Amino acid sequence: MQKKKLVLIGNGMAGIRAIEEILKLLPDQFDITVFGKEPYPNYNRIQLSKVLQGDTEIKDITLNEWQWYEDNDILLYPGETVTKIDKENQVVYTDKGKETPYDHLIIATGSNPFMLPLPGADKEGVTAFRDIEDCEKMIDASKNYKRAAVIGGGLLGLEAARGLLNLGMEVDVIHISDYLMERQLDRPAGELLQKELEAQGMNFYLERHTTEITGEKRVTGLKFKDGGSIPADLVVMAVGIRPNVALAQATGVEVNRGIVVNDHMETNIPNIYAVGECAEHNGMVYGLVAPLYEQAQALAKHICGMNHQGYKGSVLSTQLKVSGVDVFSSGLINETAETKAIKLFDEWQNTYKKIIVQDDKLAGAVLFGNTKEGTKLKSLITKGASVEDYLESQQAALDDESIVASMTDDEIICGCNGISKGEIVHAIKTDGLSTLEEVKGATNASRSCGTCRNLVTDLLSETLGDEYEVNTKETICNCTDFSRDEVVAEMKEKGLTTSKEVMNVLEWKTEEGCPKCRPAINYYLGMVNPQEHEDERESRLVNERLHANVQKDGTYSVVPRMYGGVTNAEDLRTIADVADKYEVGMIKLTGGQRIDLLGVKKEDLPNVWKELGMPSGYAYGKSVRTVKTCVGAEFCRFGTQDSTGMGIQLEKKFEGLNTPHKVKMGVSACPRNCAEGGIKDVGVVGLDGIWEVYVGGNGGTELRKADLLVKVKTKEEVLEYTAAFLQYYRENAAYLERTSHYVERVGIEHIKEVVNDEQLRKELNERMDEALGVYKEPWNEVLESGTTLKDLYEKVTAK
Amino acid sequence: MDGGIEMEQTVRKVLIGNYQDLPESLGKAVEVDDKELAVFRLSNGNVKVIENKCPHRGGKLSEGMVSGEHVFCPLHDWKINLTDGLVQAPDEGCVKTYKTSIEDNQVYVEIPER
Q: Which domain of life is it from (chain A) (predicted)?
């Protein structure tokens, strides 16, 4: 039998999903050809904002790899546009001169961003936010320009704005309505969102009508109807999308707002179907992924000749993360005269929930901050469940921690892909799945927007019980099945005092561990028992063993301590003399305001230290490194506090403290924050009469803005709160976990609770003092110990 | 000393020091002629000698972490067997190994002569 020819126009999420469904139902029955105007395989457009933020590559959001097309014998023409459909002879023509006949033709051309026809909209620096090319344009702009204006305070606009903030631009969002995301949220939720986004650095102009984009060749600003104007070097239009219907229209397919289809996704022309954002069903055009996937499913069944009731429309439901904030809505969003609402607003946790009840039935819901209940609510709203049922199920959910336990098998877990609890549980059981990744691969659940991943993990643990715990536990390394917490607990409980003992008692799988677990155990032993623990030099990696940084050529670098980054002429002279005498290869200023002498031979290290006569700067250690400071009130005309003095005090106090990973600090004397405390593990900012202490910032591999821990009045309090924070981090973080990851993991609120508790703070300070009490300056210790000098630094020549 | 001298190769025994002077569970670099060797005193008491250069980027193996009969290169964590000199999977390669002997607390290494 000859295969039927199936042609898909549009290589996007809806169209490819239809193909996937068809392949599932009737594999090998169709010759499939796909045309896509973008030069990429099918990618997850929902996650475009991540590409914009620059930390995600296209391959990370790719849904179907090139290999998938190959494996399924799909002929893919990326970067090729269909220009004409001959509906009589059933042939399509492309811009590259290709002719392809079809038996079934699916139009899934999606939509185009709507560009406001403003004067100046054609200027350089004006873009939409719809595809990868737009993202690249914005990333380029962010390298050379500073001020971005996003027109549109809907979902797309806010995602673009967040991305641009991450790229380091100043971002204004212009919105025509009087609150944000008014299509998906009610006013209280929209206002909460605005507050949160303002805290993140976005600036809003609400109820503003843009009338003109100003500038010469390139955009320089925007003008508003009320006469106001703002400067801008980049304008992103995110005011909405329009179904892409041009091709259908030219072919004579019936088009209203979108391409008109019936319940089987058929257009008025035989053998031509439409699916996705370009299609209009029952007067509705959908732009969210879940309805599009439902359409794809209905279409696949129809094309495969399956008996099917067709697509009946979708209850609109949104569950998303806007800039780190979870929001959800479903069904009715705003109250009417016929509705009653249940509202809960928790100002402390900053969460908001509204359930709309109509005729005693659930008709809609809005969630802000915590959306765990979203999938459940959506399913109840779709079913038209009674409000009693809901309240009952809520009680059941309270009794049983995870919400999945109270869900029935047919309830949907993954809204994007329409995967029910029953399907996931079935897959876990029959395919022996044990990880989220495996569930994603086998069922598609959690593969699109990812908001249901918690539910899927809950399901895994519910289905697998203890087995799951074992499977997902993060062990210290491959030498053991124990996790960090378990090892530390065993150390305390059994009074283990050496690495050897730990590895013996806990039945390590390797004889003497590896470079991952050995330094970790050595650290934990010292943290648990600062007084008794004898540091194990053979468990230290080279830098920490030799107290210098190894370089690629086997030489070392020397960074002397320079408290708060403040030095003097005499020290500088000494450094210069030592550098001359030992012929150092390079003298460099470090990022932490220190002087680095590079290219020192190992055997010279002790003499270099001796002649410098300065303490070690610990530039090599998993320990408190440097405290960077700004000039401060002593000289700076803007300074309000003694930042150098504060920095020196901090550095002297915490000098040489072993920590899970390196700890960098900064102290500034005014909000200009010249010492960059916003990206330090501990950042202190002095304001008039106040010190702000920020924690968990990072300026390295993964940028993270520090969270405000506390505002205090005195230097002593800064030391006290910093000590409490650092000790808590020392006691609870995993070895090699930076404060940024740690704070992100446990949450700043939790850490605030701990350090703000007077009793806990006092105890943490006591334990910190104990840890600091055993510190010995390492360079001097080496110089004073003949054996260490001989063991580690001696040069041996044999004949 | 059990044979070890191959037919057409002569070896020279070089004294590298007192056994007690070798730090336990650590390596030590020793220069012999134009070669640099890494000498390890393992926790089981054995002494192993290999060339002091990782086949990857030339890291000094004497500064690496020792675990059982293996050393991990300090630069990029390659794992190398101290007895046969083989780099462990997934990396590949090998380093030269040298025979050792201990007499009266003195540690000798056998250097092949050309």
A: Bacteria
